[in-house]
Amino acid sequence: MSKLYSDWLKIDLHIHTDFSRKTKNNDYKGVFSIDSLYTKLKEQDVSIFSLTDHNIINIDAYKEYYEKYNSDTDPLLLAGVELDILGSSTTYHSLLIFNCNDYDNVKAIYDSLEAKYAEKGSDAFNRKLTFDDIICAFDELDYFFIPHAGNTSSIIHAFKDDIAAAQKMLILLQSPMEKVQEKRRQIYNEHFDVRLTEAFRNKEDFAYLEFSDNHNIEKYPCRHMGDQGDHEFYYIKGSKNYETLRLSFIDPKSRIKTTQEFQEIKIPRDYLRELNIKGNMLLTDNNLNFSPHLNVIIGGRSSGKSLMMDILKRSIDVLESEDKYNAAIEGATTTVSSSLDAMPKAVTHLNTDILQINQGAIANYFERNELSSLARKAGKFGEYQIAKTKFNEIQTELDKRISDLHQVYEDIHEIKPDQAIILHNNTIDKLLNPEYHLKMNKDKLIELTFSTEKFDETIKVVEDIEVLISKLKKAPTIDIEEAEETIIEGFVSLLSTLKGKQKDKKLLHEYMTKFVGNAHNIVTSANDKLNAAGKEKALAEKGKQEIINKVKGHFKAFVQLNSSVKSALSLKLEHTELIDLDEDSKLCIELLPEKEIKESILDGIKGYRKDDLYNSLVELLYNETSLKNYGDNSADNFGKKIKSQIKALASCFVKLTDYLEYRDGTTSKSNSPGYNSEKYLKVVLNNPKCGLVIIDQPEDNLGNKFISDQLVELIRKIKFKKQIFLITHNPAIVVYGDAESIIIAENLDNMISYKQVKLEDIESQKRICETLDGGEYIFDNRSRKYNIQRLLQEAGNGKN
């Protein structure tokens, strides 16, 4: 049974029978039989083939095959022949594949061909036709012209004096070419591009194929007579019919794959395979088979398109459905299966990330400033989280610097800076007394040496290393060689020397400390023996030093205050993080505070000095101004006040601004909803981690030019890597996107039905055109992608 969607088929349109001996000597090897042919084709899973003998049709073989086998269940045999055709300089070989798969019509083709040879008086081994002969012989028939283009029997060789004529002929007939090496295809494409309309250049959409050209069925799938190895099959996408070939030759990029290309797109991945709907009063029973590639849902208003999408969501465990469809599917039994499910089930799980975009949702992301979801859908959420930590670091640093400022304020407040420091005249007189006294700053002298504890720490480190080395030498798993033992012993000796030096320094330090202490005692004792005037002078000196220390402490505290203020104000809160989403767009996360740190703190002080936080805090400490709404300027109240002032500033960290920055220098803030939606859609569709895409009407807010120029190409690019479900009214997405599965939703007398169709079915094409506005134009434009009118005009004017 054929699938309900366009699937990949092996084809081989160039297989010879033993009839080739009738027109060329020794042109077939072995014994040909239809039964052997059928067996070999089934073994290789070939779906469409043709028997193409040289300048003759094996009418008996066609008759036998059509009588024995059914094209619905067996490989489809299309009528064909390989002809020698006269070019401008020599002959070339070309296949003719006819829209014919029944004996009576093959017989008619056979008769026309033989009549033409008889008319020209050609003997069996010298049969040649002109292109006009072919047109005349098969005037009313539909066939494909597939010339060789890679050997001495190629159309390129035969028209070497008039390549333009060959190009025009191939374009007019929408012909593919056979036997073209991969390295030559780019050259051919460049020559064909000059003949195409501007819109279709650089598309690499001229079709190239390889067939087995088998001349020995017993060794199939060998090439030729079995002396050139096995043939690597080409795959085409579609159904077993002639129209599949037509669409493949029109759109080879989407519909023709080499064996290697086919293997690349068939890498196992999880996707929705089947959906069954039964037992609902509103819905007809349906059994839908989904393509692993592009599935589109089309239909008129209220036809059930979004209902179908909701049923799909209900069938996947991680997706949420909409309550508004509950009544519509009440009583229905739905089962679903993924490619990894052995049996259908009510709900399935897919082993992949899923992208879901509802109708009109893209523009809302920008309006609600919710672009964080874009990072997740683009597979960049890890980078997004790292970027957010940068803002957390800024906020943490802000809290630290404000806390430091509060601490400095508290330190200054404790030394009571507003209290006067007085030096009495009496003290000055005593300082000027001519009596002498001895001075010695014991603490200053001790500061110039290390503390004993420092030496103890160093000695302990050395002793720990000595213990570890001793353990290492005794370890059972290590063998120390003689040379290594020497190195270790040398290191142990060095440690011993270092320890000895540290002990010597410790001992010297202890002597010095003891000496300073003794000297201080001597000085103190000497001063105690002074007369009364000398003692008073010593006390005055002590008082003076206390005043100096207090003044020094004040200056030092205010220097720290100034430094802390500068540190707080130097923190730059305005910050932007950029995340590359694709080659065209960056996600920008921006912190834009409404107020500066200085302004926020000053707003909490009455009559503050404008733009001068340091002096405003100095005045606050000297009680020359006050905190707003507080009774005093205590350190505790100051801490509460600046925290409340900074709290409003910190709220900007919660409300970060997200926007997109584009390669042209503009941003989503300055562009239209439609333009932003286009960029958003490109980013999320390119997410390599996503294996399933569900989109409801992507054309909403999107321009037609973007859809035709970019969205369709993007869908064509990604659909072989991920499964897509898409509701659309746009025929370009369906036709140019080359949808593998098309589900037509229809509502007749409040009964909703879903019919699955394929692009290569002629009747389905009519139905698609009736459903989509402009569908007929799109179909016609796709099939006539070349500027045929211009080519015909040039031919009529005799131009090359």
TrEMBL record:
InterPro entries membership: P-loop_NTPase, PHP_dom, Pol/His_phosphatase_N, Pol/histidinol_Pase-like
SUPFAM superfamilies the record matches: P-loop containing nucleoside triphosphate hydrolases, PHP domain-like
GO molecular function terms listed in the Swiss-Prot or TrEMBL record: catalytic activity
Q: Name one Pfam family in it.
A: PHP
Q: Report domain Polymerase/histidinol phosphatase N-terminal positions.
A: 11-87
Name of this chain's protein? Polymerase/histidinol phosphatase N-terminal domain-containing protein
